[in-house]
Amino acid sequence: FEVITGGHYDVDCRLEDPDGIVLYKEMKKQYDSFTFTASRNGTYKFCFSNEFSTFTHKTVYFDFQVGEDPPLFPSENRVTALTQMESACVSIHEALKSVIDYQTHFRLREAQGRSRAEDLNTRVAYWSIGEAIILLVVSIGQVFLLKSFFSDKRTTTTRVGS
Fold first, then answer.
1. In whole angstroms, what is the distance from residue 21 CA to residue 19 CA?
2. Contact between residue 59 and residue 29 where contact means Cβ atoms under 8 Å apart
3. What is the pLDDT of residues 80-121, one digit of tens each?
């Protein structure tokens, strides 16, 4: 699993077997990998928790790989060795699986970067709007202040007649 967006990019993770026995438990992890062989059939439960960060929503990517890959050549349990073409196919197949893992990793990093860029863009937009409002208020205040310097203040005098 890997946390894509939200907070400090960490979650709690727990994996339980069908009997409720905890197989894996980690607290405040950004990413991790866990491999195990199931000891019995049944429903295994996993849970990602965000209890410690109640105000921040998080996006978590997780991937399951269940079972072994089917053999590239169905008659792999044969006694004869692989031909040069077959062994080249096997090595290319393994290299392509690692390329898929790298692509997934880079897609996740791109999603994190996009999320950060969008958050930064939102903050810059709000800051710019705030600065524009402050600039407008200050300029209006200056206009009224300068106007008061140049306005005539008429004083009214009353004559008391005799």
1. 6
2. no
3. 666 888 788 888 988 998 898 889 889 888 988 898 899 899
Domain ranges of the chain: 1-66, 81-148
CA 161 – CA 136 distance, rounded (Å):
51
Distance CA 49, CA 13 (A): 6
Q: Give CA separation, 160 vs 58, 154, 155, 157, in Å.
A: 82, 19, 16, 10
5, 110 contact by CB (below 8 A): no
CA dihedral for 4, 2, 55, 20, sign (positive or negative): positive
Using CA of residue 30, residue 67, residue 25, residue 17, what is the dihedral sign?
positive
Q: What is the DSSP letter of 37?
A: -
pLDDT in tens, 20-59: 888 889 888 888 888 888 888 888 888 888 877 777 788 8
